[in-house]
Amino acid sequence: MEPYHSQTLKNALRLPALSWRLTFFGGHSQQVKAGWHIGTERHLAFELIQILAGSERVHLAQDAFVLTTGDILIIPPNLDHDITCLQDMSYFNFHFGLDDQELSTRLIERGLIYYPRSTQQNKELVPSLTELWRLIRPDMQYDFDTKLKVQKFFTDFLITLNRQTTIREQATSLTKLKYAGMIASGLQQQLKKQIFDFNHHGIDPRLTAALTVKKVISEAQISLSYGSEVFKDVYGVSPRAYLSELKLVEAKHLLLIPDYSILAISTALGYNEQSHFARQFKRWTGMTPNQYRNRNR
What range(s) does the HTH araC/xylS-type domain occupy (predicted)? Predict the structure, then answer.
């Protein structure tokens, strides 16, 4: 525990300060017929699938899982996957992300998390997931009270997941996913640190060149060529392209802050010129940064 540095509070017991984002989106439940199919897709967030009844096959990274009633699967970010319903099915699904480095890094490095219905880990997650999907009904109100309940049950889910992944246990993961996950996690966390250091300490990333794909891969203690190959095999894009996707997500978030200048955003993301950032952003979205900001006011 960190003590206060103030003499007035030198004997006080303190709680940790919180300054992070928890994101929960795409939460839904649905009944589908055998043959229902979702083509190959990937997301920048974690995805949870819980089978309430029936079965489906999930193809990912040259492997496949058949999920049956009660099974839970957590897919890490940027992993290509497609889904086919094998038997009339109802399911619960949502996407989530979090800024906390400790848990997000651990989850990414763990790779795919598969908990069949009979496992203890599955049984521990079911109560919070049940509370979440029970909120879904035709007359559901998207009011503050409902959002608070979603926040509470989602937090309960994260508390359980954090405890489970802290304990060393056997989880189903793919051969190359560990290294690819380490690289993805490193790029995510280094970019967040770069933005934080610029915002709070005035450290210009253009002068330090702290974030490079080469550096992140070397920290995984593998060669640049092997790391790049493994990453593309698992995620379908190069580490450099993945970093560009991360920058787009952060750029969109920063553009929603009214007093944050385009120049500051460009610098925080590590672009040498604002014009380069503007061109890249338009290539990503079809809009200039100013157009995106004005449209989302």
Answer: 193-295
Question: What total of structural domains would you count in the chain?
Answer: 2
More confident site: 186 or 126? 126
pTM of the model: 0.64
Residue 40 lies in a domain: yes
Q: Given the structure tokens 């379908």, which residue do they identify? A: 236
Per-residue pLDDT averaged across 121-148, rounded? 94
Residue 196 shares a structural domain with residue 262? yes
**Count of all residues that appear for the chain in the document:** 297
* Domain end residue (candidates: 102, 134, 166): 166
Sequence-distant (≥ 6) Cβ neighbours of residue 239 within 8 angstroms: 183, 187, 213, 216, 217, 227, 228, 231, 232
Domain with 268 in it: 177-295
Q: Are 75 and 81 in contact (CB under 8 A)?
A: yes
Tell me the CATH number at 225: 1.10.10.60
The pLDDT, as a whole number, for residue 161 is: 94
Neighbours of 169 (CB within 10 A): 11
Note the pLDDT of residue 2.
58
